[in-house]
Amino acid sequence: MTAAPTQARRRQDMTLPLLLLAAVTSLVLIISQHGDVLARLGGLGTFLGNPLVRAVVLSLFLANLLFAYRWRTQPWAKVLVGAACLLLVLPWAGRDNTSLFDTAIQIGIFAALALGLNIVVGLAGLLDLGYVAFFAVGAYMWGIFGSGQIATILKYYGEHAGATNAGTLVIGLLLTVITAASMLFIRRAGKGRAPSRASSISFGLASFGLVAGLTLTGRALLVLNAAKAQGLATGLDAGFFWLFLALSIFAAAVMGVLIGLPVLRLKGDYLAIITLGLGEVIRVLANNLTLYTNGSQGTPPIKSASVPWLDALAGRLGFSPDQYPLFFLYFLVLIIISLIILVNIRLDRSRIGRAWIAIRDDEVAAQAMGIPLMRTKLIAFATGASFAGIMGMIFAAKQAATITPESFVLNQSIGVLSMVILGGMGSIPGVILGAAVVTLLNLSILPSLGEATANMNIPQQVNPAQLQRLVFGVILVVAMLFRPEGLLPNQRQAMQLHEGEDDNAPAVDSIEADSGQDAHAEMASPGLAGREDDERTGGVK
Amino acid sequence: MDLSTLAPFLVNVVVGGLVLGFVYAIIALGYTMVYGVLQLINFAHSEVFVTGAIVGYEVFRVLEPSPMNGYLKLIIALIAAMIVSGGLNVLIERLAYRPLRNAPKLVPLITAIGVSLILQDLLKIIEGLQGRFDLTYTLPQGFSNKFCATGSSCAAFGDTLRRIGVDLQVKDIILVVVALLSLAVLNYLVNHTRLGRAIRAVAQDRVTAGLMGIDSNRMISATFLIGGALGGVSGVLFGMKFGTVNAYSGFDPGIIAFTAAVLGGIGSIPGAVLGGLLLGVIQNLIGVTNVLGSITGIANLAAIDASYQRIGAFIVLVLILIFKPTGLLGKSNTEKV
């Protein structure tokens, strides 16, 4: 890991070293992925062809971006290195080794997920252990509609139409509109007052009506469209990709609100376990609702959109047609991740961002300052969810062959959480770095460790290929022990805390942190420590 | 099926659920004890518990040829598991949690996850080097017999039990007895000894307890020791109940037990027991809903199979927490400013 640069090193102009390093690593990366050149290089070629060396080279190459961000250089050098690495060198190397694209897209997906979770956990202080559920929603939306699964569903409803007809659609729509309107009315009427028992009961009843209305509408739509099943044998037209890209954001955000409404009243670890539970519920449903998701077998092949001129460009550059979708998705991910970073930076400095931080640091004080707790928390949940939703859809398109519920297990949620905390909670560059480090470890370095040692005479049980959990666990523990504030901690907090200090590691006196009362201790916690006070529920009795 | 056959069936399911619930309850205690003093979800507890199960397996395996009394073997297995798991838990606390006592709360959570991953693979290596992965318990003679089987001295009692639907094996009875004994010991330890009082003081307010002359680090170690020992006991009980364990089998029971601890109100010892028993029964009931569905002829019930068992626990948790946000027996607290 990169050590924190000292003051002296920071003042030096690093333009030249950065450019040199970028050039050298780029060259090595391209050579190491290129089979022909490797063959000609002899001994050096075999060394560079080693999977482990390749993984290390890739990591070093990506580290250029980190250096470009961290080092003190001329601004043009930063832009040059960043653009050249992402837009030229990586696609070039990816042409010879498609798995590079895969890894890069995967890093982008996880960076977006980590940024989303960073809003929920790092800014708003809501520990969410079921975050991957929103990812699953986005993935299955396109996974169902962009594959032959939709035809299967329509066929089933065509055969099991029952009493459903156009009338059902009208009833369903009416029910939806009426219940939604009455829910809004109840909310409006009760504004500014504490909800009475009658109003919450009627609100609950209306929400049941809404669910019934939506179910009826959905069912009627499916039955009425059953005849189209024939034409949809491979799913909706790829042109719908863009519509669904927007829909997946929306659907995941709605899902975030729906899950958030009942559970956001809970605090700390109660929230953690209930979100964990809901995440598992989504996964088990994906596993069991075989009609919609095809269960553990996974969906049929999933389409991906394509942009004609981009494909033409790829063809001109010597990419093979089966690489076009990845080429397209790589650039799509780059665009989306830049947008997400932009949104994050704006949010961080906005009114709502400050409201989140206020809630994280002290809920009661935030409320006293006039921050609507529930609404602010719901916005955090919905925003985080929407990032996961859109990336879920891209994940589905990237997987192409199939998506299975196995991609949405609890360990994924935990993995994303570890990215956020390893990188530095509340810090945008930190979280992205965390995502890159963890993804590289899991997808590139640890598997290649196994490949590289496959020919050595190591007993099966202690083969590194089998011990990814062990290595990942050791890295997590060691990183946390030596850098509990994360690899790139939040600058603002570090600044507030350490005016005039050299060291940017928060040094919190034990008593302060323990009591959780001191202002400094509160600030030092980029997480949930400030809430300790109200979480002492009972203790051991 | 009419009531005269349905009732014994349900009784059997509920009793089986209670037996399972006792295992969950003892695991949940390990979570809740640690949470009580450190407000930390000890994700590594599920591996501490599996370690206990593996130690139990080894003891039973080594002692299999010896003509020793089965109950003596069980006691040796339990004690060995308690020592190893308790020691392991103390070691984990010393290495992975204590250095981070003043770090933000999520940091030890991540190390806990890391330790959990490390232990999973370490356990796999240890057993793997001997060429084993799935470990099948070799229980002493008689443990798998029916409780009060026909022909034994208490056959009449056993027959009555079976008539009302209670059909247990000897090991189920042992399991409940051991669980109740550990609960009694824990209750005595926490509520009636100096050590227990000190632990409770640390749980309530670590700083003030320190000012009163309590060495909070030692008390936290003691809590981890007790919690780990309970994990060891529950591991052996789990192994006896299910017959097979492996290095990764701590995950599911761990999640369910933690859910049980939260359901009962985390930090509360009676709450953990209540939650464990409740989840055990619910899980067993969901496991047979398809049978119930086919008995009663309700098609929707018949479609729910055992794969819904795990989310059944979570749905109950969601419902209960919505109405009682601090769990069944958790103290509701007003926020201090």
From TrEMBL, chain A:
Source species taxonomy: Bacteria, Thermotogati, Deinococcota, Deinococci, Deinococcales
Species per Swiss-Prot/TrEMBL record: Deinococcus maricopensis (strain DSM 21211 / LMG 22137 / NRRL B-23946 / LB-34)
Molecular-function GO terms, alphabetical: branched-chain amino acid transmembrane transporter activity
InterPro entries on file: ABC_transp_permease (IPR001851), LivM-like (IPR043428)
Bilayer topology: Multi-pass membrane protein
Name under which the protein is recorded: ABC-type transporter, integral membrane subunit
Alphabetical keyword list: Cell membrane, Membrane, Transmembrane, Transmembrane helix
Chief place of localization: membrane
GO CC, alphabetical: plasma membrane
TrEMBL record, chain B:
Membrane spanning residue stretches: 6-28, 40-59, 71-92, 104-123, 173-190, 222-243, 255-278, 285-304, 310-330
Organism lineage string: Bacteria, Thermotogati, Deinococcota, Deinococci, Deinococcales
Protein name from the UniProt record: ABC-type transporter, integral membrane subunit
Membrane topology: Multi-pass membrane protein
Subcellular location: Cell membrane
Keywords in alphabetical order: Amino-acid transport, Cell inner membrane, Cell membrane, Membrane, Transmembrane, Transmembrane helix, Transport
InterPro entries: ABC_transp_permease, BCAA_transport_permease
Family classification: Belongs to the binding-protein-dependent transport system permease family. LivHM subfamily.
